[in-house]
Amino acid sequence: MKRYLILALMGLLALGLVACSAPRTITVATNANYPPFNDIDTQTGQIVGFDIDLMNALANKEGFKVEYVKVNLEDLLQSMAEGKYDAAVSAITITQERKKDMLFSDPYFLAGQVVTVLKDNTTITGKDSLTGKVVGVETGSTGADSISAMTGLTIKEYGDLTEGWNDLLNGAIDAIVSDNTIAALYVARYPETLKMVGAPFSQEDYGIAVNKNEPELLEKINAGLKAVKSQGLLEQLNQKWLPQ
User: Fold this and answer.
1) When comparing pLDDT for 13 and 42, which is higher?
2) Distances in Å between the alpha carbon of 88 and those of 56, 73, 112, 137, 165?
């Protein structure tokens, strides 16, 4: 009887150890409408993109699982400030203002703001020639911040910038200010219709946002990021997702 009791206790202990070693699942917010970094695959309905491949690689390296939640950028930033999600990956620019509300990983990508117009537009040549124009930006983005203090133009904000690109293609707005990464993608998709004008007028680092109460998770993400960088993953993702 004593022997069976010992075996039973050993079994319970083993189960407890298995339970304790089960990988943690973290909730990660993402825009899911900002290709090539995050988007919905129309065939599978899954969230895909540069950011998703990167986050999955980090999770694999550091032994945790990821549950993605689709949230527009404005709500994503607000939710991270409120501690609603464990992390967020969505081509998020690291800024001093955002650092007040959330933690940030080491940078993983350098981008910049740029102006995109219809190809036959000859009056807009960059940021300084937007006076009198209707300019689309994504609500809550650094693109919106970059022109918010400018006068003499009409700023049209979009919760989903996909609608903004459609408006530009249809001639409903004159220009879009966005990260050069997404601008390059749309120009590659519509080379006969769209063009970027002027050089990027900012330099912005993307980082993975982390709940301000999760410093240990930030350490894991940075460790994983360092490992995948050393293995050349970022170069592979550039080749896979960015227009060449």
Assistant:
1) 42
2) 13, 10, 20, 21, 24
